[in-house]
Design brief:
Number of strands: 13
Number of domains: 2
Shape: globular
Strand content: 15-25%
Distance between the termini: 31 Å
Order of helices and strands: EHEHHHEHHEHHEHEHEHEHEEHEEEH
CATH topology of the largest domain: Dihydrodipicolinate Reductase, domain 2
Strand order of the largest sheet: 8-9-7-10-13-12-11
CATH class of the largest domain: Alpha Beta
CATH architecture of the largest domain: 2-Layer Sandwich
Oligomer: single chain
CATH superfamily of the largest domain: Dihydrodipicolinate Reductase, domain 2
Helix content: 25-40%
């Protein structure tokens, strides 16, 4: 059995990891850590775990990556930005693999990180940043296999990147025209108390937030930039318009994306058949990505509590633009589930192990 530690176990993502691991046939959580709830029983905070956790592991412990590395094979860190980069060492990584759900190791350019995450001081070993693998499983699977440190992607980024990646990688869209309009359930904002996330503030309302400033923007740009480079692009950075919206629902991400099609060498434009073949080239054999039939669009209710990402698209012949949409569960494929999928790849387990469940519609 893989011995698992969860640092930040009482947040939404941490609890979701615990739930998945509890049902995982090849893994067991032996270390639940929480600074806020240390000394309390995990199953008292989350009553859905009552009677299901071994008594000797149920009490939440103080966060200590060094101690966890001695007792665990893999550590999931569902912690605020800046925490892991302040304490991760080569010694810890020599003893346990680390899958980080924060943004500390997602962006390779430290100056970009400082710009989008101001006020977070980093004193970590620069070699750790270069070693970290961006854990978007369907894109970086081969690099993940032998990694020690995984930067688990964010929820908006996972949905936004997966939806557009094949068309960027094949050079079929003008990336300068890419616009991403995304919606998220309130659990994406975390479990800490915030007035703007109270029921009365969110219910019966929809609002954009982080307009032109959302921290997932450079993550999307960086990863789609790699795809653009692979298609023989000029190497210029990708700049997108990314606008997230808060929807009055518990969970889910829906990302609708728009881009102008590039003309083909003969002067025509890609048609729906060509675009579908490109999506099938990249995702046709991916268990957790479902390409929807023509005329069918993703709905968050059909991916809720599952590891699946649903993707649909159409071409607007009038404007020569493609409209793409993706949906996933922000706490599963957008956080905890993808983290476990990364763990499965790293430990050479079947990728769907512990994750192959139907959406809880």
């Amino acid at each position: 059995m893989i011995k698992v530690g969860i640092l930040g176990a009482t947040g939404y993502a941490g609890e979701e990891i615990a739930r998945i691991i509890l049902e995982h046939p090849s893994a067991e959580c032996v270390f639940y850590a929480s600074r806020s709830y240390a000394g309390q029983r995990f199953s008292d905070i989350f009553g859905n775990f009552r009677g299901l956790i071994d008594e000797k592991y149920d009490v939440l412990r103080e966060p200590s990556p060094d101690v966890m590395a001695e007792e665990c094979d893999v550590i999931f860190t569902a912690t605020p930005q800046g925490y892991l980069s302040s304490c991760l060492t080569q010694d810890i990584l020599s003893k346990a693999k680390v899958i980080d759900l924060s943004a500390d190791y997602r962006l390779k350019d430290i100056e970009v990180y400082k710009k989008w995450y101001p006020g977070i001081e980093r004193n970590d070993d620069p070699s750790l940043l270069s070693e970290a693998v961006y854990g978007l499983c369907e894109i970086n699977r081969e690099s993940i296999k032998d990694a020690r440190l995984i930067a688990n992607p964010g929820c908006f980024t996972t949905c936004s990147i997966l939806t557009a990646y094949p068309l960027v990688a094949e050079g079929l869209i003008d990336t300068d025209t890419l616009i991403i309009d995304a919606k998220s359930g309130t659990s994406g904002a975390g479990r800490s108390a915030k007035v703007q996330n109270l029921f009365c503030e969110v219910n019966e309302s929809v609002k954009p937030y982080g307009v032109t400033t959302h921290r997932h923007t450079p993550e999307i740009e960086e990863q789609l930039g790699y795809a653009k480079k692979s298609s023989g692009g000029d190497g210029s950075p990708i700049l997108i318009n990314f606008t997230p919206h808060l929807i009055p629902m518990h969970r889910g991400i829906l990302s609708t994306e728009y881009a102008s099609l590039k003309a083909l060498p003969d002067g025509t434009y890609p048609d729906e058949e060509m675009i579908r073949k490109v999506y099938e080239k990249y995702y046709g054999n991916e268990h957790f990505i479902r390409l929807l039939p023509k005329g069918t669009w993703p709905e968050t209710r059909f991916t809720s509590r599952s590891e699946f990402t649903d993707i649909g698209f159409t071409i607007d012949e009038r404007t020569k633009r493609v409209v793409m949409a993706g949906a996933l569960d922000n706490l599963v494929k957008g956080a905890a589930g993808q983290a476990v999928q990364n763990m499965n790849i790293m430990f050479k387990l079947p990728e769907e192990e512990g994750l192959d469940r139907v959406s809880a519609f």
